[in-house]
Specification:
The chain is α+β, with helices and mostly antiparallel strands and 320 residues long. The chain has helices spanning 4-34, 40-47, 292-319; strands spanning 51-55, 69-73, 77-85, 93-102, 107-108, 124-125, 162-169, 184-193, 197-203, 208-211, 216-219, 229-231, 233-238. The strands form two sheets. Strands 2, 4, 7, 9, 10, 11 and 13 form a seven-stranded mixed β-sheet that branches. Strands 1, 3, 5, 6, 8 and 12 form a six-stranded mixed β-sheet that branches. Bound molecules: calcium ion (CA) (4 copies).
């Protein structure tokens, strides 16, 4: 027969078993959470509606708001931003590749010479000397397996045959975009409007984002396992074509225009310096006392000298 004493002995054992069970459950949960950095990354991105979009109007800052369309006068130099939204906080971007297709008979993306880690090329990564917000982190865009950033990597011309390309990665980090925010600027592309017409810009299927672990975050190709929404933009240029330089590090300053010359107008004479007399009543003491007493003193001194000279000559004549 079980006694009350036996029941009391069994209770601590039961409590111990419950405690061990709880500990095991907590450990399993923690391990699963840590493993989210692996296979669960993609699911996390999809749950938060990951998207990349072109901000066609960056006049208030790249990706401040995402504008899908813009108009420009022919000859304008302007920027288009590649914006990421719906990032999963705590899982930052570790690498990316973008091809933004455009009509290179309407717009050109001037080539910037490749140098070093190419962080301020065109397209211009949100890292290096030019950043927008807190940047991407420590990245390099001289991807040896692909290419340096290029304003147009497609030699063909016409609609869709402009190809602004950029591919960057960061093996060591830090990676900031996606770390503590869910949206931000990937890169900015500088364009020059060279002819009137409507240009439909597309983020090509070859474009993608990846986690710092290297696994895919989202791809613009809808047929892949991890597709993401990729929104292009529309640019409408007006006016007649104007020549635009095909290379340069940045926006081109307008020329300095001299003032118009009116035929027959007399030449403008050079200004003649005017020597003004000293103001009256402003004496050497600087207290407004007049200069006149000093003049009388001078006259008196000269008169005294002349009189003394005359007396001296008279005295010499008498001695002779
Ligand atoms: Ca905008
Ligand atoms: Ca930059
Ligand atoms: Ca370049
Ligand atoms: Ca081209």
């Amino acid at each position: 027969m079980r006694t009350a004493i036996e029941g009391n002995r069994a209770r601590p054992v039961l409590l111990s078993l419950l405690a061990v069970g709880a500990l095991v459950a907590v450990t399993v949960l923690a391990t699963a959470t840590l493993r989210l950095g692996g296979g669960a990354e993609q699911a996390a991105a999809q749950e938060s509606s990951l998207a990349v979009s072109l901000d066609m109007d960056t006049s208030d800052g790249p990706c401040t708001d995402i504008d899908g369309a813009i108009s420009h006068a022919t000859g304008d130099i302007y920027s288009v931003a590649i914006c990421a939204t719906g990032l999963y906080q705590g899982y930052p971007i570790g690498s990316f590749t973008f091809d933004v297709l455009y009509d290179d008979t309407l717009n050109i993306a001037p080539e910037v010479a490749d140098s070093d880690t190419a962080l301020d090329d065109n397209p211009d990564a949100n890292a290096g000397a030019t950043v927008w917000g807190d940047g991407l982190g420590s990245f390099a865009c001289d991807n040896s397996t692909l290419a340096y950033p290029t304003g147009d990597k497609n030699v063909a011309t016409g609609p869709g045959n402009g190809d602004a390309f950029i591919a960057c990665d960061s093996i060591q980090g830090p990676w900031t975009l996606g770390d503590n925010e869910t949206a931000g600027v990937i890169a900015v592309i500088r364009f020059a409007a060279i002819a009137a017409g409507t240009d439909t810009l597309v983020i090509a299927d070859t474009s993608f984002l990846a986690y710092s672990s290297g696994t895919s975050m989202g791809e613009c190709d809808p047929a892949t396992l991890y597709p993401m929404t990729c929104n292009g933009g529309i640019d409408t240029n007006g006016g007649a074509p104007v020549p635009v330089p095909t290379s340069g590090p940045g926006p081109i300053a307008p020329p300095v225009v001299p003032p118009p010359v009116v035929p027959g107008a007399p030449p403008i004479a050079a200004p003649v310096p005017v020597i003004a007399p000293p103001p009256t009543g402003s004496g050497p003491a600087g207290d407004g006392s007049p200069w006149m007493p000093l003049g009388w003193l001078l006259v008196g001194a000269v008169g005294t000298a002349i009189a003394a000279g005359g007396l001296l000559r008279l005295a010499r004549a008498r001695q002779r």
